[in-house]
Design brief:
- The protein contains eleven helices and no strands.
- It is mostly helical and 209 residues long.
- Helix 3 crosses helix 8.
- The termini are far apart.
């Protein structure tokens, strides 16, 4: 009995690190804000977003599975942190992420089930995985829009921003003249297989939240 309790509490304690793991995006873009959201807050936000979109747009797959995926989709960041695309390749992130989640889950009795769910999420082949991925990306876009509306971003304060070395980022930023809209446009291709998400990002570019 004590071993089960200790294992549960150890897993919980590891997961609480995400409460203090700050999201990389706003920091890289030099957000002028006293408090930037944590990864744990992002997880909550994306789950609430998924619930809203699921019901409003009439999706018919397993919402419970989506929410479970989203609850665990950032577990790797307990160990490797919130790495942006310019810091690590997608392939290497998957390798390092798998090592991290294997360590985090090693004593949990449901580790095979959770690992399988994470593999499904990362493969993005099932309806639930595609939807969860879209919600994950959209929540980032929404949060960046909110920061922009607060006046947290200054285009003149980006000289130390490593993302500006990316030609695609520079191109969309020059066209959009807004960090949040450039972020949305940079992610647009990720939504192309779902008309509902495309409609949401189109709306998001033209309207405040």
């Amino acid at each position: 009995m004590n071993n089960k309790i200790e294992t549960t509490l150890k897993y919980y304690t590891l997961c609480t690190k995400l409460k203090d793991t700050i999201r990389t995006g706003p920091i890289v873009w030099n957000a002028l804000r006293h408090r930037i959201e944590s990864v744990a807050e992002h997880i909550y936000g994306v789950q609430m977003l998924a619930i809203g979109i699921y019901y409003q747009f009439g999706y018919m797959f397993d919402l419970g599975k989506v929410l479970y995926m989203l609850a665990v989709h950032e577990l790797e960041e307990i160990e490797i942190g919130d790495l942006a695309f310019f810091q690590i390749t997608e392939e290497n992130k998957r390798i390092e992420g798998r090592k991290a989640t294997d360590y985090i889950l090693k004593d949990i009795l449901g580790k095979e089930e959770i690992a399988k769910l994470l593999e499904e999420y990362n493969a993005r082949e099932t309806e639930e995985a595609k939807f969860a991925y879209h919600c994950d990306k959209l929540e980032c876009n929404l949060q960046m829009k909110l920061y922009d509306q607060e006046g947290c971003f200054d285009l003149e304060r980006q000289s130390n921003n490593p993302i500006l070395a990316n030609p695609e980022v520079k191109k969309v930023l020059e066209a959009e003249k807004s960090i949040s809209n450039a972020w949305i446009e940079f992610d647009r291709k990720k939504y192309r297989d779902d008309d509902n998400f495309m409609a949401i990002v189109d709306y998001l570019k033209e309207h405040d939240l």
